[in-house]
Amino acid sequence: MKNLDQIDPEIAQLIKDETVRQRDKIRLIPSENYASSAVLEASGSILTNKYSEGYAKKRYYEGQQVIDQIESIAINRAKELFGAEAANVQPYSGSPANLAVYFAFAKPGDNIMGLALDHGGHLTHGWDVSITGSFFNPIRYELNPQTHLIDYDMVRDLAKKHRPKILMAGATAYPRIIDFNIFSEVAKEVDALLCVDMAHISGLVAGGAHPSPVPVADIVTSTTHKSLRGPRGGMILMKKKHRKAINKAVFPGLQGGPHNHTTAAIAVALKEAATDEFKVYAHKIVENAKHLAKHLMEQGFKLVSDGTDNHLILIDATTRGITGKPFAKALDTAGIVCNYNTVPFDPRPPFDPSGIRIGTPSMTSRGMGLPEMEQLAIWMNRVAENIENKTELEKIAGEVKELCNKFPAPGIPE
Ligand code: DSN
User: Fold this and answer.
1) How do 137-141 and 219-223 pair as beta strands?
2) Residue 349: exposed, middle, or buried by beta-carbon count in 10 A (0-12, 13-18, 19+)?
3) CA 22/CA 62 separation, integer angstroms
4) Within 10 A of 189 (CB to CB), how many other CB atoms are there?
5) Cα-to-centroid distance, 125 and ligand 1 (Å)
6) For the segment 357-393, what is each residue's pLDDT rounded down to a tens digit?
7) Measured from the CA of 339, which atom of ligand 1 is nearest?
8) Annotated catalytic residue, options 16, 41, 51, 152
9) Domains in the chain, start-ordered, CATH in brackets?
10) Given pLDDT bands bounded at 50, 70 and 90, which one contains residue 96?
């Protein structure tokens, strides 16, 4: 970064510090990953200099000879990879992508329906503090209190009672496979638009490690930087009949010019995700998560739904006599980075909840496998037993660093 070093050494140093952090720690936040060097190069390119309001061949600015090609390539790759009829790659991220769906298909005050945030949904699925919970009338379905699986009977009953305009499926903290077919049946029964937010699992879907919502949903939204391993961005896949409404909602409805550097990086990530290597990666994410879950349970941890089918695990720390926040902080000191999280029916508040949320996309991107999952479970148990023992936590951090240095991360200089 010789130019940055010279012009702004303060920011240059902070980027170096963050690079070291990402290199030397085990990153378990399930929505994070390591974008490849190719994705980073596209994302950091001169494409950031260009304004392109509109869509290919229908822009409000001249000079789109190159940008039109880049955006068309990204759209075609998204359609091909996910088998979608149409795609929009301009949303700045997942929340704007979801907002575009509401803006296109609902009016303020309309009923919309989604999984409650404290049961694993997302803010934009109609939670109070989100614009989606105040402009629309949110109806929330929940998990079954015994199994902690989505209560599909409740989904059907609430949908029949409230007839939402939009039925939202998808989650940010749900460790099990979502049955998109049931959601599709319910949506048809009540004449709702089915939107699946697959942000967390889009890499798994791309690699065939999770059933795809694309064939059965009207609209599928996603971020591009989680298990899909692209740049920070969003996209919307849809049936052709919805393209006009969605395109209009994204621009000029919600956004100005698309971030062309991001569009190019999304195109690169989609090319990478179409490879056989990525299919193997997607399946390994799940294999690692299942193995980690098994070994965490052997170490005495209580997992929500007693395991996982995807990339994500929710641990209820209270059965170990600790709570989520201090556990997450102790793990961070030990070089293991996760986030504290509510567990279903959590009696504790979101800022000091009972659990932590972890996932395997980043570790798997480094080539870590089953032995490393076993080692991680042992470390996490040691942290739980030594939550206030700084010396022990720092000792673990040293061991973690040693392991990390054996597994170079994509996009991170060694
Ligand atoms: N912030 C994301 C996550 O961590 O799951 C959801 O958008």
Assistant:
1) unpaired
2) exposed
3) 40
4) 12
5) 12
6) 999 999 999 999 999 999 999 999 999 999 999 999 9
7) 4
8) 51
9) 40-273 (3.40.640.10), 279-405 (3.90.1150.10)
10) very high
For the question of residue 226 being annotated catalytic, the response is yes
Reply yes or no on whether 223 is catalytic. Answer: yes
> At 414, is the pLDDT very low, low, confident or very high (cuts 50, 70, 90)?
confident
Check: CB of residue 101 under 8 Å from CB of residue 246. Answer: yes
Share of the chain above pLDDT 70, in %: 100
Give the residue from 281, 285, 353, 370 showing the smallest Cα distance to 314: 353
User: How large is the average pLDDT for residues 252-275?
Assistant: 98
Task: Please indicate whether residue 323, judged by its CB atom, sits closer than 6 Å to ligand 1.
Answer: no
Map tokens 């991107």 to a residue: 365
Output the CA–CA distances (angstroms, integers) from residue 3 to 6, 9, 38, 44, 131, in the order listed: 5, 9, 20, 14, 41
Average pLDDT over residues 109-131: 97
